[in-house]
Amino acid sequence: MSTIRYVPLTEVSPPALLTLLNDPQIRNHLIQHPLFSTDSLNAWIDAKVEEDRFPGCRVRAVLSDEQLIGWCGLQRSGEDAEMAIVITPEAWGTGPRIFRDLLGWAGELGHEQVIIHLLDTRRDYRFLQNRATSIRSTSLLDRTFTTYVLPVQ
Length: 153
Fold this sequence. Notes:
It is a single chain. The chain is of the alpha+beta class. The chain has 5 helices and 7 strands. A hairpin with a 2-residue loop joins strand 6 (134-140) and strand 7.
C-alpha cells in the first residue's frame, strides 16, 4: 500500500505542481481557465496558502510514496466548508482514502458538515448520494455544479 502524506503547497516542486495543474485529464473535470504559467501558478499557490490560514481551512499537496499526485483541502465556499480533491488519473484509486482523511480533518476543525461541488458534466456518484443529507444544483462562475452536503461523523 502506498504511503500518503499531506504537505503544504510551498513544500512541493513548482514545476511538478505546474505539470499537474495543466494536465488535460485533470482540467477536464474542473472549470475551464487558461493554462497556468509560472506567474499564475505562484498567485494560485499564494491564494491557497492564504486560504489555509483561515480557521476551519486546510489545503495541502498530496504525496504518494513521496511523489506529487495532487492537492486537496477544506476551503471556504460562501458560508460552507468545501472539500476539494484534485489528483492525477493514475492516483484515482487513492481518492477514497483522501476523502476519509478530509472528513477526519473536518471533524478536527469543528465542521458539522462539508460540501463537495462537482461539475454537472460529471457522473453521479452513488457513494456521495448515499452519504449526502442533501443534493442541490449550484451555479458558480457561470457553471452548474451538483453540490453534495455531507455530514461529518
